[in-house]
Amino acid sequence: MEEVFTGCSHPGVRFPGGEASRGTVKPNGNFNASADAEALHKAMKGLGTDEDAILQLLTARSNAQRQEIKTTYKTLFGKDLVSDLKGELGGKFETLIVALMTPPLAYDVTSLRNAIKGAGTDEKVLVEILASRTPAQVKDIIAAYRQEYDDNLEEDVSGDTSGHFKRLLVILLQVNRVPSSLLVSSLLIESDAQVLFKAGEQKFGTDEQTFVTILGNRSAEHLRKVFDAYMKLSGYEMEESIKRETSGPLRDLLLAVVKCARSVPAYFAETLYYAMKGAGTDDNTLIRVMVSRSEVDLLDIRADFRRLFACSLHSMIKGDTGGDYRKALLLLCGGDDA
C-alpha cells in the first residue's frame, strides 16, 4: 500500500490560468527527516502535547517530506507516527493533521471509499473529486482503489447512486474525454451548443441524457467554447440553464463539471466559500479542499476567492474556525489577500 501511494502531487498537471505548481505549501529547503521525527516525538512525549510544534512543522513540509518523516519516525522509535498523532490529538484538528499525513492519491481514494461505504452516500465528495481531477488522476484513483480495496470503483459508485447522476459519474470514470486537438472544431462547437439548447431551454421538460453525454465526454477547452456559443444562441450562461432545468445531485454534478471546465481554482474558491458561509461550517469540505489543493493551486484559489467574494480566504477561515485547527488552516492558506 505505501509503495503505491507515493509522490506529493501529480507532476506536470496544469490548470486553466495556473502553473504546474501553484500551491502554498512547498518542499522545505533545509529538510532533515530525522530532526523532524525527533521534534514530533518530543512534542508528544510526556505529559501534555505541544500542538503548536506539530502544526508549525507539518504545514511547512511537502507531502513527500511528511512521508519521509513517517518512515524515519518508525525507524527511530518503532511506532507509527499517524497512530501516535491520533492518540495525542482530537476533533477537527486531528482530522486535519491526519489528512496532511496522507499521500494525495491515498487521500482521494479513502475519501471516495468513505463517501460510498459510509452511512448513506456523500454525493458532495463524489461530485467534488470526480469533476475536478484530471483524466490522469482519475485513472490513478481507479487503479489505487482496486489495489487498496480489491474492488471496482465504477461498480461501487454505480451500486450506490442512480439515474442520470449515476450515468454522469460513470462517464467521468471512463476518462474518455476526447482530446481537444481532435475536438475543437467550430462545427462541433456549434452543434454541441445547439443540441444542448434543444435539450433544455427549447424543450418542455429536459433531456438530461444529452447534458450528461456532452458535458461528460468533452475536454475542458472544447466545453469553454461550447459555453460561449450556447450563451450567444440562448442568451443564458450554461450554469443558469442547468440550475433551471435540473435538480438534486445531478444538478450539483453538472454545475461542478461546467465550473471545472471554466476554472478549477474558481470552482474550489466557491466550494470553500459555501463551506463556511452562513450558520455552521462544513469542516469536512474545508479540510478536504485545503489539504488536497495546498500543493496544487491554492495560490490561484486564494486569488479567485478574493475576486469573487468580498473578503479574503484567510479572513473567512479566521472568522469561522478556532484554536489549533484555525492556526493550521491559516498556515496552509499561507497569506492574507486583504
From TrEMBL:
It comes from Salarias fasciatus (Jewelled blenny). A pair of annexin repeats may form one binding site for calcium and phospholipid. The keyword Repeat applies. GO terms for molecular function: calcium ion binding; calcium-dependent phospholipid binding; phosphatidylserine binding. The keyword Zinc does not apply. Coiled coil: none annotated. InterPro entries: Annexin, Annexin_repeat, Annexin_repeat_CS, Annexin_sf, ANX5. The gene is anxa5b. Keywords: Annexin, Calcium, Calcium/phospholipid-binding, Repeat. The lineage of its organism: Eukaryota, Metazoa, Chordata, Craniata, Vertebrata. Belongs to the annexin family. SMART domains: ANX (SM00335). This is Annexin. One of its GO terms (biological process) is negative regulation of coagulation. One of its GO terms (cellular component) is vesicle membrane.
